[in-house]
Amino acid sequence: MNPGWGDKLALCLGGLCSPCGGCLGTPAVRMYGKYLKKQFNKAGLVEEQVDIDGGETSMHMWVPKKFADARKGGRTIEQQKQPPVVLLHAFGPGAIWHWNAQVKDFCKRLDVFIPDLPFFGESTSRSNQRSETWEAECVKKALDQYGVTTFDAVGISYGGFVGYRLAQLYPNNLRKVCLTDSPGVVVTKEEWQNVLKDLGLKDMLETLLPDNRKDMRAGIGLTFHKPPPVPGCILDGALKVMFGDGLDERRELVEHLMRFLDNPESPLGRYRQECLLVWGEFDRVFPLPLGQKLKAFLGPSAELVVIKKGGHQPSVEMPKEYNKIVLDWLTAEPKVMTEATGKPVVEADGYTRNPGSSDSAAETGEAIAAEKLDGNRGGLAEHMETSLGEARAPAGDVELARQTLTS
């Protein structure tokens, strides 16, 4: 398979072509799924089924072999300075189809856990819960079984919503969180309706849960800035292999998410965790202004990286650049330290302040952000001021944009 667009296509809902260019349809999709599993094995990961909540939910996990062996032996791995990272996939098929372009590079430098979220891939549940908050709780319970008490999280799109909830629910366990093209709780109903209008859609159900070639192709079109061609028979195969099981439950998850986007809750408190926001320049699902808005809300502990020419999943479209950005950030010393250390707090925008006199300044900055974001209900561009700091290109056609809210 061509290592360029072919791998991207495979990651994006199962676009596949044989080396000779001929289409194999459903058998090819199944065959490539087996190939992806072998690549995960080569990276040092093994498959595990982890039962939680008394067996009500069974989480399919890719975990480092040493953690799997320790669990079987009733042991836990001693906590390392560099904590494990959990990768949270987007909506659609299971994790192997989303993280294939990351697993090799990430596993070289980190202990990586990759779950299929409940009702995706090979994870199942008898629970009647349907929310990203519940899915975050399931991820944490699965990690608990491996003795993982401190970890980082990287989430793409829907996985970013789950990552956002992990940061909210477990501030003492989650060290760093990277959200990729996922705006969390800052989306207003008006903004979401404008997105749907621009896309020419009434809702996202048909795109997220396709049952025909047309809807599948539309989903690929939303994922990529420049969608690659996909043979129709491959789309048919992907529909059968990737979207056949758990359809009703995933539909309920989508409906819950749509209700949330139609009526977003009040903004949550700003995270103490260091946060990296990675955004495709031409994301059509959650356009870049939403990433800028989330950066402003989270404040100086957050950093925004814009990948030029990227779409909704730059991890798929430009994996080399994406991997370098995220890995360099994950493995760097944390820039935000707790006040309890008695040391200066170095914010993500490089600003250093004295903890003893920082509270009032932080509260003032947060109040300014809240005031501007509240005024933003009528339109982001009119009410939010941003200043771009120094830009650099860590890899290829990538731009690091440090967004600082000005008063």
Automatic annotation (TrEMBL):
Residues 1-25 form the signal peptide. The lineage of its organism: Eukaryota, Viridiplantae, Streptophyta, Klebsormidiophyceae, Klebsormidiales. One of its GO terms (molecular function) is hydrolase activity. Pfam families: Abhydrolase_1. Keywords: Hydrolase, Signal. It comes from the Eukaryota. InterPro entries: AB_hydrolase_1, AB_hydrolase_fold, Meta-cleavage_hydrolase. PANTHER family: ALPHA_BETA-HYDROLASES SUPERFAMILY PROTEIN, SI:DKEY-122A22.2. Residues 347-366, 371-407 are annotated as: Disordered. The keyword Transmembrane helix does not apply. The keyword Hydrolase applies. This is Alpha/beta-hydrolases superfamily protein. Residues 83-187 form the AB hydrolase-1 domain. Residues 371-385 have a biased composition (Basic and acidic residues).
